[in-house]
Amino acid sequence: MSDPISTREKLLKAAQNLFWTRGYSNVSVRDITRSADVDVALVSRYFGGKQGLFEATLKLVPPWEALAADGEALLLKAVKSFSEPHDPRSDAVNPFTMLLSNVNDPEMGDMIRDMVRRGMSKPLAEKIGGRQAETRAAMLLAVLFGAALMRKSFQVDGFQAQPNEALVAQLMHLARAALAYDG
Amino acid sequence: MSDPISTREKLLKAAQNLFWTRGYSNVSVRDITRSADVDVALVSRYFGGKQGLFEATLKLVPPWEALAADGEALLLKAVKSFSEPHDPRSDAVNPFTMLLSNVNDPEMGDMIRDMVRRGMSKPLAEKIGGRQAETRAAMLLAVLFGAALMRKSFQVDGFQAQPNEALVAQLMHLARAALAYDG
DNA sequence: ACCGCCTGTCAACACTCGTTGACAAAATTT
DNA sequence: AAATTTTGTCAACGAGTGTTGACAGGCGGT
C-alpha cells in the first residue's frame, strides 16, 4: 500500500472516532482494534492500556476558539462551534459531541467535567466579566450544550431539519439573552 | 420486621435509584440486588431480566405536568421541573436526570429518545402553536435540558451556588426568549 | 397428612471485558 | 553477516456480565 500510516496512528484515529461518539465505557478495546484492523495487544503496548488510549485522544481536543474573540464575535464563534452537525462519515468529530458522550461516564466523567470547568466555564466567566459573571457564563453554556444535546442526543425534529442559518440566528438571539440578564 | 415491603418493590426501588442516576449500562444486576439485599436470580424471575426491570422503572415516570398549564404558568412549571436539584439522599430522583443519564446509552437510548419526542417535544410544539412551533419548542427544551446538564452533569460553579429563586428567574427570562423568537 | 404453589438460595453456564507473556517476523544497528 | 531492537501474532488469564435450572423451605387448600 502507498499508505504509510503507522499502527499507532490507526489506533488513535479509530479510538477518537469511537470514544468521542459512543463514550468511553461503551467502547471496548476490541471494538477499536477491529475498526483499525490491528491486533488487540497493541493497545497495551503503545498506549499502556485502554485508559491511556483515551487520554491520548483527549490531547487532540483543540482549545475553544471562541475564547479568543470578543463581544458579538465571541457569541457567533461559540454558537457555531456547537451547532455544527456531527457527520459520522467525516473524520472530524465535534469535540463538544465528545464532551456530551463522556460526561456521564463512571470512569472518565471527572476528567471531562474538569475539562469543561477549566477550559470553558471559568475562562468564559473571566472574559465576559460584569455582575454574576459565573452564572451568566453558565447560562450561555447551558444554551449551547442544550442545543448540542437536542441535535446530537435527542435528535428532536425542530433542530435537524431547517437550514443552518436560521438555527444560528435563533441561537444567537438566545445567547445574547443568556449574557444580558444580570438579575 | 414490621416492614412488609415485598421483594419485588425493593428491587424496583433500588433499580430506579441506580438506573436513573448512573444509566442503564453502567448498572449491573448484581449492583441492584446488592443494594436491595435480594438474591440475583429474582430479577429474572420477577421482571424477566435486566431489561424488563429497567422498563418497569420507566413506567414510574409521571407525565410532564407543565403540559397541563398555559402561557406563563407553563413556563414556570417547566423551569421548576428541571431546575430542582437532584438529591441523592432522597428517594425521588428527578425524571429529567434519568433522561440525561440514559439518552446516550447504547441499548436504551432509542427508547429514551422516543420518550422525549413523544412525551415532550411534540406535545409542547402543538401546545404553543404559532410560527415554527417545532423549532421554538425545541429551543425551550434546549434551555431546560442545558440547565439540567450544567447542574447535574457538568456541575459548573455558577449553577449550584446561588439561591434557587434567582436561578428560576434567570431561566424564566431565557425560556421566554426561546419561545418569543419566531425568525 | 398430602399436595401444590409461591418464595428464596445456590451454583453453574456461556460470554465479554482488559491485560499479559511467550514467541515469530521484520527492520535496524553494529 | 551477526546481533539487537522493534513490530506484530496468538493464546490464555482472571474478573465481571446476564441468565438459568435444580433444590429447599414455608404457606394455604383439599
Describe this structure in words.
Two copies of one chain form a homodimer. Chain A is mainly alpha-helical and 183 residues long. In chain A, 68% of the residues lie in helices and 0% in strands. Chain A contains ten helices and no strands. Chain A has helices spanning 7-22, 29-36, 41-47, 50-58, 71-83, 95-102, 109-128, 133-154, 157-160, 164-180. The longest helix of chain A has 22 residues, at 133-154. The radius of gyration of chain A is 18 Å and the shape is elongated. The model of chain A has no long low-confidence stretch (mean pLDDT 92). Chains A and B meet through helix 7, helix 8, helix 9 and helix 10 of A and helix 7, helix 8, helix 9 and helix 10 of B. Chain A binds a DNA duplex (30 and 30 nucleotides) through helix 3.
Which features characterize this protein?
183 residues, DNA-binding, 68% helix, 0% strand, homodimer, mainly alpha
Helicity level of chain A, as a percent range? Answer: 55-70%
Structure classification of chain A:
mainly alpha
List the helices and strands of chain A in order.
HHHHHHHHHH
Q: What about the largest sheet of chain A?
A: none
Oligomeric category: homodimer
Count of strand segments of chain A: 0
Secondary-structure map with pairings?
Two copies of one chain form a homodimer.
Chain A: H1 7-22, H2 29-36, H3 41-47, H4 50-58, H5 71-83, H6 95-102, H7 109-128, H8 133-154, H9 157-160, H10 164-180
Helix pairs in contact in A: 1-2, 1-4, 1-6, 3-4, 5-8, 5-10, 7-8, 8-10
Chain A binds a DNA duplex (30 and 30 nucleotides) through residues 7, 28-30, 38-45, 49-50.
